[in-house]
Every structure is written in C-alpha cells, then in structure tokens.
C-alpha cells in the first residue's frame, strides 16, 4: 500500500487554507508565532505540504508576509531546502510507514534542534506523524518544547492529535485544518483522475482531495472493493467474521477504519432517511441499499463509535484483532434489528 501523495504547490496551500496561512503570516510578522505548532485535521487535506510551506517560510531570507504570503524560492536558503541539503532544516519521521518513532530518535532530533543555525537564520524541525511517537519518545520531546533556543521552531503534524500526550499538545499552538472548498478541490483533482467523475472520489473521501486521489488509484480501489465485499458479506450474515477479517497489514488499518467509518455513516443516513438519501459512497449505493430496513439505527451509531474509538486510540493497535472484533460486531448488527 503506497503512502498518501502530497503533490501540492505553495499556491495550492495558500488557496486551500487561506485563513490559517494568513494567521501564520500575521503571527510571524508580529513576532507572535509560538516555537511549536501542531498541524492537525483529517487525512488528505495537505497538512504535510503546509508544514513544508511553513518551514520554508521561516527559513526564507526574503519571505513576504503580505497577501498572499510566501517564500521567494530563489535565495540560498530556499535553494538548499529544495535540494534537500538545508543544514537548519531537521525532519523526523518513522523509518518505515506504520512504525513508531522511538526515544533515541527523538533525543537525536532534539540535540540537532539546539545547535546554532549555520545560515544565521532560524532552525526548523518537522515531526511527522507526531502521533507515531512512543510514550517515552513523547516525554523526551518535552525538553525541546519547554526549553527552545531563540529562533528554533518545531512543527508537529498529526492526523490523530488525541493520540498525543496532553503535555505535548498543551505546549503547541494548534492549527486545525479543514477540507478545502469543493470547487478548489475539484480543480486540483480533475486533471489527475481518469476513472470516473472526480466528484465521486471526492465524495468518498469526504472532501479530502489527496485521499480522493488515492482512492482513485487502482491499488486503493482494489483494496476498498475487497474490503467492502468482506464487510458486506459479514453484515448480511453470510460469512464467518473471523475468516472474512483475513490478513490485514498494520499499515492498512487507518485506511480500513476510514472505509468502515464512511460505509457505516452512509448506512446511518440510509436507515434514518430512506433509500432516496444522498450517500457519500454513491458507487456502492445499490449494495448499501440492500440493508435498508434490516439494521437498527442505535446499533449502527454504537458501531460507528467503536470504529472511531479505534481510529483515535492513543496506543498502537493489533490490526488483526481490531478487524476481527469489528467484523464480529458487524455480524451482529442485523440480528439487533430483529429483536
């Protein structure tokens, strides 16, 4: 499974998130930008691209903070960052997707942050995803958050900020991002999608353009289709839930939970409002409608809570056990309505 693409230009970022971008620029201009920023929001809305944009803005020697704010892209600092050789830019990520960030990695990260800037400007570190830190790693990060040298900035990126220690969250200025306007998302998505109308994938992704692009890719479509077949079979009582759970890899769990969340949300709409209601997963509308009148609304809300609790869990979960439990619970949804 490939990681989610983040193919955004600085113009995309400014257009997609004008208010956060302007607030950031005003804070920098007024010397009010905190030393630690937490960028959070649902997956697929450009948080990682925004973190990179902010880092380049802080490092640029000729940045502009008017409307629209941005970096010059031509100074020595910008050129070094584009080449991946900027000495004052310190990124930290897991060694492999789906893995945790350990305490030693965070200590080394913090040690680099306190060094004197080599270009006589700011130093910027990006920790992405911040929720991948172990508890010991998060505690080690507190020193960097509590005693930052002047001119040092730390940017944390998280799809699941609830997984971060409260002591980490409380020491950051939180920037909550939302999906961009539908028209802007479609303008970006349409040229990159050649299978079906782009609005279909944007609806499936609940307005998150990068996630919509990933859904449109053949590999993700195949994963989603197979997962839905297994889930629908369990929901209809025609398949053993443990067998249907199969073998899902750890890195697939966030995507799997996002799919279940979307399908259950559609089933809730369907059960509450009837088969004429608009569904996010319009391509699965016929299959979802087969369950109309067969599921209990209260039980569906309870199931949705289980899915979202798993997605927001502050600890790493055993993927196989989570999927088995959710499929077993799904197999009972139909029987709940018959009582």
Low-confidence stretches: 1-6
Give the percentage of residues in beta strands.
Answer: 5-15%
Gyration radius (Cα, Å) is 22 Å
Total count of helical runs of at least 4 residues: 17
Helix content: 40-55%
N/C terminus separation: 41 Å
Counted up, domains total 2
Overall residue-averaged pLDDT value: 89
Oligomer designation: single chain
Within the largest sheet, what's the order of strands?
Answer: 2-3-4-1-5
CATH topology of the largest domain: Rossmann fold
CATH architecture verdict of the largest domain: 3-Layer(aba) Sandwich
Number of strands: 5
What does this structure look like?
The structure is a single chain. The protein has 339 residues and is an alpha/beta fold. It has two domains: 10-176, P-loop containing nucleotide triphosphate hydrolases (Rossmann fold), CATH 3.40.50.300; 217-338, Up-down Bundle (Zinc Finger, Delta Prime, domain 3), CATH 1.20.272. 51% of the residues lie in helices and 7% in strands. It has helices at residues 10-16, 18-29, 47-59, 76-83, 103-113, 135-146, 166-169, 182-189, 198-204, 209-216, 218-235, 241-245, 253-273, 285-289, 297-311, 319-331, 333-338, and strands spanning 36-40, 89-92, 123-127, 152-158, 173-176. It has a five-stranded parallel β-sheet with strand order 2-3-4-1-5, sandwiched between helices. Helix 9 packs across helix 10 and helix 13 runs antiparallel to helix 15. It is globular, with a radius of gyration of 22 Å.
Secondary-structure map:
Elements lengths: L9 H7 L1 H12 L6 E5 L6 H13 L16 H8 L5 E4 L10 H11 L9 E5 L7 H12 L5 E7 L7 H4 L3 E4 L5 H8 L8 H7 L4 H8 L1 H18 L5 H5 L7 H21 L11 H5 L7 H15 L7 H13 L1 H6 L1
Parallel strand pairs: 1-4, 1-5, 2-3, 3-4
Helix pairs in contact: 5-6, 8-10, 9-10, 13-15, 15-16
């Amino acid at each position: 499974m490939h990681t989610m693409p983040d193919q955004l230009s600085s113009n995309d970022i400014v257009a997609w998130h004008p208010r956060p971008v302007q607030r950031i620029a005003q804070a920098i201009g007024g010397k009010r930008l905190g030393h630690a920023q937490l960028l959070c929001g649902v997956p697929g809305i450009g948080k990682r691209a925004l973190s990179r944009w902010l880092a380049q803005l802080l490092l640029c020697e000729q940045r502009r903070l008017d409307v629209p704010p941005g970096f010059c892209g031509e100074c020595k600092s910008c050129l070094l960052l584009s080449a991946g050789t900027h000495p004052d830019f310190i990124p930290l990520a897991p060694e492999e997707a789906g893995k945790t960030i350990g305490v030693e990695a965070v200590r080394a990260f913090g040690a680099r942050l306190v060094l004197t800037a080599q270009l006589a400007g700011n130093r910027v570190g990006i920790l992405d995803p911040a929720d991948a830190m172990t508890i010991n790693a998060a505690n080690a990060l507190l020193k960097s958050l509590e005693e930052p040298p002047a001119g040092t900035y730390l940017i944390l990126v998280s799809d699941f900020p609830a997984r971060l220690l409260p002591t980490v969250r409380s020491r950051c200025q939180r920037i909550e991002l939302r999906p961009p306007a539908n028209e802007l998302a479609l303008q970006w998505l349409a040229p990159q999608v050649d299978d079906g109308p782009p609005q279909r994938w944007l609806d499936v992704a609940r307005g998150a353009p990068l996630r919509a692009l990933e859904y449109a890719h053949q590999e993700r479509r195949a994963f989603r289709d197979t997962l839905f077949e297994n889930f629908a079979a369990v929901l209809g009582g025609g398949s053993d839930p443990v067998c249907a759970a199969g073998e899902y890899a750890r890195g697939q769990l966030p995507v799997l939970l996002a799919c279940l969340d979307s399908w259950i949300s559609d089933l809730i709409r369907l059960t509450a409002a009837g088969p004429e209601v608009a569904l996010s997963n319009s391509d699965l509308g016929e299959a979802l409608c087969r369950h109309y009148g067969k599921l209990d609304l209260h039980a569906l809300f309870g199931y949705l809570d289980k899915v979202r609790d798993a997605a927001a869990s502050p600890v790493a979960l055993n993927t196989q056990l989570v999927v088995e439990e959710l499929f077993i619970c799904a197999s009972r949804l139909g029987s709940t309505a018959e009582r």
